[in-house]
Recover the amino acids of this structure.
């Protein structure tokens, strides 16, 4: 809702119930204009009823306690009826509710828990998701590895040279089983090539060296990863040139049916968000490849290089504002029809989680969590789960097909002392702790909820994702804030569970 408007009177009169009341109260906590309107409504009603701005008589709670009790719990409507009878003695029902809310809200809100987000666990959860995504780069920094950093220079790799397409290049033909709907600017051949890339890991075993370079800031980072993949088993990532004593990490592959469903969904998101065209051909790691460009309007946002022989994604480039900011390419690649990993490295440890239906997002939103169906126009909600940990953590996953983002939400007050290596920055007026890399992690607090966003999106996109989420300061200790706390307390007392 934009503002409460006519709902102000309904709220102060106790006529809003259930999720409608919860949404209104949540809105009041973040909207100074509506809190001011509530306060003005209180003043107006006092004047209409001829009451002074004084506290109610001391025997009000005695009279409330003297209300008749019934063995069967009274319904919210009946409780409000009882409150209305008491309100007659002090002027009117609305003034009684407002005055009572003012008294009940006088106490300071309870102390909230101090939260130190388990960033490593959240990053591992993100790495496990993207590690199984055919169109994504591995989140190597979430696999206990550190990329090698060095200044950006003219010697940095440039975008791969691409030959213009004269005729359709030869490509492997696989039975994909689904065909995403294309938009008016999409090339059917480009979408089909990406469809083959999505399902190729289900059919092709491979082993090779992959170099991931991030050039988003003034200091670039590079990491070389030895990748071994076997269909049905999963993928092993071994960072070979990290200064840390990193060990190989294994990401298990899900069941074929679920993998196919994820692949189809990711590609459809990509088709919906960008215009895809077959833009040329080139050679990557000695293999002929078709190049697919993704654009938003006239702006190039990514290029995908698909091996003609196997359908594997052999190179990926991401652009931000027309500038190459990330490159991921195989230097060497060996493929086979089958394989087997006999000595599996340690599997990436991720928090246990319980899946939550995305249909429950309205309930979670009413409960104070931020689970919008879209973020920054193109990112769509793909999954929800609740992490099985000592604290209640909601995890919402988003993607536009090109990049992914995981949002973790915890109730409490941010304890910044545990965020070592996270510079404090200001993005479009939003203050947060930010660590750029593979992946980028942002942490901030908004009105009693701690948000941790983990994403592999370019920095401008990451900033837009952060800006699309709540950034509300604590409610000031003024009269309207006291009323809000009072309404929350009365609402809990008047609920059926009370």
């Amino acid at each position: 809702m934009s503002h409460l408007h006519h709902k102000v009177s309904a709220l102060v009169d106790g006529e809003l119930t259930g999720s409608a009341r919860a949404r209104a109260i949540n809105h009041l906590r973040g909207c100074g204009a509506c809190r001011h309107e509530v306060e003005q409504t209180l003043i107006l009603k006092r004047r209409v009823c001829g009451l002074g701005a004084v506290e109610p008589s001391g025997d009000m709670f005695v009279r409330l306690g003297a209300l008749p009790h019934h063995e069967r719990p009274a319904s919210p409507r009946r409780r409000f009826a009882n409150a209305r009878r008491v309100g007659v003695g002090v002027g009117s029902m609305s003034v009684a509710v407002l005055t009572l809310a003012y008294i009940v809200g006088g106490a300071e809100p309870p102390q909230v828990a101090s939260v130190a987000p388990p960033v490593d666990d959240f990053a591992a959860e993100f790495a496990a998701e993207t590690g199984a995504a055919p169109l994504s780069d591995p989140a190597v920094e979430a696999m206990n590895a550190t990329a090698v950093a060095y200044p950006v220079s003219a010697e940095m790799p440039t975008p791969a040279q691409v030959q213009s397409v004269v005729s359709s290049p030869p490509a492997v033909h696989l039975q994909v089983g689904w065909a995403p709907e294309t938009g008016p600017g999409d090339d059917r051949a480009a979408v089909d090539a990406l469809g083959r890339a999505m399902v190729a890991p289900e059919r092709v075993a491979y082993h090779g060296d992959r170099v991931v370079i991030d050039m988003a800031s003034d200091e670039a980072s590079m990491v070389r990863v030895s990748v071994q993949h076997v269909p049905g088993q999963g993928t092993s990532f071994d960072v070979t040139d990290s200064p840390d004593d990193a060990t190989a990490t294994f990401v298990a592959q899900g069941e074929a049916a679920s993998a196919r469903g994820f692949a189809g969904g990711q590609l459809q998101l990509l088709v919906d968000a960008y215009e895809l065209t077959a833009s040329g051909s080139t050679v990557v790691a000695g293999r002929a490849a078709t190049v697919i460009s993704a654009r938003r309007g006239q702006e190039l946002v990514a290029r995908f290089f698909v091996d003609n022989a196997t359908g594997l994604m052999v190179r990926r480039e991401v652009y931000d504002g027309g500038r190459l900011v990330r490159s991921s390419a195989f230097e060497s690649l060996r493929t086979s029809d089958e394989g087997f990993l006999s000595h599996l490295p340690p599997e990436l440890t991720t928090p246990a989680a319980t899946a939550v239906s995305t249909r429950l997002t309205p309930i979670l939103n009413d409960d104070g969590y931020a689970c919008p169906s879209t973020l920054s126009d193109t990112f769509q909600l793909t999954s929800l789960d609740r992490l099985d940990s000592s604290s209640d953590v909601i995890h919402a996953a988003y993607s536009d097909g090109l990049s992914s983002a995981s949002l973790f939400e915890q109730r409490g007050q941010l304890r910044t002392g545990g965020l070592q290596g996270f510079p404090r920055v200001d993005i479009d007026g939003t203050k947060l702790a930010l660590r750029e890399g593979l992946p980028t992690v942002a942490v901030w607090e908004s009105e009693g909820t701690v948000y941790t966003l983990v994403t592999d999106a370019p920095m401008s996109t990451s900033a837009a994702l952060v800006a699309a989420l709540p950034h509300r300061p604590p409610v000031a200790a003024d009269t309207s804030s006291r009323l809000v706390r009072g309404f929350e307390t009365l609402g809990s007392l008047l609920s059926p569970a009370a």
In short: The chain has three domains: 7-108+477-494, 114-119+350-467, 144-336. The radius of gyration is 28 Å.
